[in-house]
Amino acid sequence: MKKLADYAAWTGPLALVVTLVGWLIAGMLPMPLGPGESTDDIVAFFVDDANRVRAGFVISSIGVVLMLPMLALISVHLYRMDRTNPLLAFLQLITAAATMVINMFPQMIFAIAAFRTGRDPGDIVLLNDLAWLMLFTGITPFMVQNIAIGVAILRDPTASFPRWVAWLNFFVAFSFIPDVLAYFFKTGPFAWNGLFVFWLALTTYSVFLVVMSFACRRANHLLDTASTSTLQGA
Known about the structure:
mainly alpha
């Protein structure tokens, strides 16, 4: 069990690396396209080298899905923390699935925008807006997920995860709050490519994936112990 769990724990950082590589290939990084760009600039991004854009976002969509084993492993640990009342474990699992969908669908929409190079420019702009706003404003499931993890860790008498990991999860949830402002700003730090939306959310979510990988690997040694105890009790 522990060996499988250790593999699962590594999928969080792996997902991050693959997703960022896909964004680099597509041209989303290092400087993401902003909502204030002209229609011509947006169309050029998707049309000038459409194969590269499609390939990049296909890779990033695969990268997003790679985090699923680690997210499932987090719920395994949360369930082990409180088997009599596994509400937080199930809540984390449900919201984790929702966050994966929210992360994956924009990658597919970006790729769709580059699918037909002869598409009406207004349609390309619409698809671009849809993908960006879906990616950074659907923050509620992310926040619920982090809060559920944080509360479960603080309630755990065995301290399977370090207590500071709980507070980090609360901070990550808090860091997503500015994302909804992307609906109201086309330039500046609160635009979808701005400091307090794109860069803050990307940084804290990246830290979340890396830290939870560390925390899960640290706690994995308890899984075999728990399995042995269950067998002995039977």
